User: Fold these one by one.
Assistant:
Number 1:
Amino acid sequence: MRVILAGYNVDLDALKEYKERDVLLTPESLSAAYARISRSPKSIDVLRENARHEVTKARASNRKIIFEMGHHSVAEHAIFNFDILGISRRAVEEFEKFRLCSYTEKSQRYVTLKGDYVVPKELQGRVLRGEFRKIIRLQNGFYKLLFERIRAHNFAAYPGLTKDNQDRRLLENLAKEDARYILSLATQTQVGATINARSLELMIRRFASHHLAEIRELGRKLFASVKKISPSIILFYEANDYDRKTYKELYEHTARMEAYTKKGRKREVRLVDHTEDGDNRILAALLFRVRGGDYATCLQTVRKMSERKKLEFFKKACSRVELYDVLLREFEFSDLSFSLIVSSGCFGQLKRHRMASIVWHRYDPNLGITMPQSVKAVGEEKGFHEIVHETEQFYYRIEKALPGIGDYILTNAHRRRVLMRVNLRELYHISRLREDPTAQWDIRNIAQKMSVLAKKVFPITTMLLGGKSDYPEIYRRLYGRYPRVREVPVP
């Protein structure tokens, strides 16, 4: 694994002065200057000048404000960019848990993989290490076979698309995204990340307490790359009992609870909770926004409206919504909670919706697998299942010796349970992106089922749900005309 500090924000005036004299380039000066805004009569540019010329004082100020006064938000003014290379897909799931960060990951849908993978350090010196490599080679070999077979199948099925290079790449990418379902979570990837110092500190602290050696190593390397540049804003980075023991103790505490000994339902998507009176609450929030007054009174007013009046109110609120517009914030006032069973391949995309509340359980072979239809189409269903069977047999052997390490050998086809809560505004975003035909079929299937369930409980405010390509027609059915299309500005 390699962690490279690719960049960080610095005062522009410091960059100009750096050419003329020795000036320390650190994001700490910006954090310190902005922290003083609330308590100093000086203008911001003067505060920045003072901070960049007196870095020692700026660092002392940061420590005092963050540690003694508890104002961690000033650390958010410091931003870091990282190249993360040679990290496993399993580790990426932990890395991308953190909301207020930006990630761009190498896609298994668009890049033909070469078989690189991570061997967990926990297997060092064990016979299991050699067997681990054997299973990975088996999976990787079948990946190459599937890719060639599915690509040939796609070319034969759509000969008209094989003449244009862009169309050929599309058919090849479809083969890659289906073949990858046999690849393991040990498969290497790379990520570009942008993280503010507050989130980075939390990340490093959580990683220090993690049970996986790869995650602990990632945390150490992240800290090592920034500690000399910004020692005053990354303060709490050591392992602690709260992060290390809480879930373990909860697991032990609930061991005898009957509910956890029963087999749960295996339906892919279930709506397990939602805001009662959701349509009315969103419309009441809109009424509150434009008319003011007490929200309870607004809600009472909306409840007295006829269904036709409510629909008119909703239509008025959304009449100017174009394809890429974000719905009004008032759509956040109703929530939906979904219980999902998703493949690792699907989860890799689902977790990117960081504004949702997402918690998940470990991968569970008992939940079965998600196998692409194309695998059946090329006659490799039996071979796929045979490799999955060998993978699972070895998974249980790893788990018996080293609990928690077996996930590395499981494939993108294996499933886990996910609990996901979204407000309706966020569901619209998910729907636009993931229900579109350009979205990958697995997450498109999940998103469509979520939308169907949402429409049953919020029948008015969900009337514009749908993918990007379907939106013009959805809008036309509601308004009797197509939405305005905003022209892309020419630079």
Number 2:
Amino acid sequence: MNGKKTKWSLNRLNLKDKYRLGIYNDTTYEQVFYFRLKGREVLVVLVISIFLLVGLNTFFIAFTPIREFIPGYPDKETRKVMQNNVLKIDSLENELAEWAFYWDNSMRVISGGNTQIVQNPPDTLVSNTPFVDIRSKQDSIFRDRIEKEERGNFEDNFSVQKSRDISEFHLMTPLKGKITSRFNAGENHLGIDIVSSPNDVVVATLDGTVIMSEWTLETGYVILIQHNDNVVSVYKHNAKLLKKQGSKVKAGDAIAIMGNSGELTYGPHLHFELWFKGIPVNPEQFIMF
């Protein structure tokens, strides 16, 4: 070869020439198979081969378990754990948001302000960043199917009840006695004051859950009960509390002993408030005292 190395390139490929690609027996050197191609046909075969190779690689990676062997790609179990973690985090965010609303409402009731009790607490913590939904229709269908399978259709086990008005409830009298100060929103007196015999028992006006049971400087021993349909009852200036926060109570259950605790009191009495959907209402309109 005259001591020179031959370099092949596409520039030397004559599109008009014919080329033969063959297979030979390595022992006998007998030609087993061959086919002829022109220069342009060689280029077409190369391009088609490249596209087929890329297409096959894409297919196997996208639609077969081979993709799980790619470093960094999660396997089936890992993806299942990730989905479960997302659902658990979402549930925890809902619980934290709901408790935040209850706590804020309790503080506002104690201070005599308006509450922010809502009929349907937010599903997730609100973000100030605007959300742009760029998901395709197929992606949305897939996400809905996965979420339905992971949640196990637990929504079907619960019945949705229509919200009732407070006038439809049978409210029990929290304390039998004489009303010495009536409801007057204009003077920021958002409840009624009831005077009775010393050490009389204060009872729950409805079934519910105690969301606060503790001492405050201005109103002494206070107990708040959350009832269905966003009804909250408040009992202030007690001498002793008989229920703890988180306790479930029935209408008529003893929850406190009437007293004279706190700075804003003029003598032994019960200050009773009734709130409906974040608005204080006059208890005398719904309870016989």
